[in-house]
């Protein structure tokens, strides 16, 4: 694998080409196990690493890898921040990015949609414990007048009960593992998730919530089990100089 040097960001410094004419940019998503091979292939296709090949901002939320021909890829760091390398000899490739994204973590997951909910704790991709459930919340009605108002009050009551049940499950399933959690990932209806997290018992989880917010269907057990593929995924923004070489050998997810 081509080696890549690590550098601290310099104010206003961008060793790659400016975005705009003569450059193509696209976004990709790959699994963490593929990142090392993908980055090696990216550098090989673009003439090797640039002199200043890796840049990490002070907040550790991304890593940008620069190739010799001006191509670059910005990698959003999952479970940020990326810890700075201190005394690592030899320096880890890509500022330790690959080691960071492939590390197994204990992650709590809370999924909520109107009337349905799921909570679980994962060790890496393995679901350690979980609970799913549902509560009836009636759909909206087109009726008007007093009938509509009564229906709206009943629906609001059902929604409150459903959110309370979801909070109960999250408290029973996720909170006992609080000391082990590296992060909490949430998904489903944003308003519903927000209502559930307002439960005072879940206050310790709020500061652990990290992106991305997962857009999921009705949160059944199978949906919960599938979430690591998404919350562990690595998101890339690839920028390449336009030209025959770029057109002939486009970078693809490995």
Automatic annotation (TrEMBL):
Domain Actinobacteria/chloroflexi VLRF1 release factor: 105-237
Signal sequence, renumbered to the chain: none
Pfam families linked: acVLRF1 (PF18859)
Chain residue ranges for the region called Disordered: 1-24
Protein name: Actinobacteria/chloroflexi VLRF1 release factor domain-containing protein
Species per Swiss-Prot/TrEMBL record: Actinopolymorpha rutila
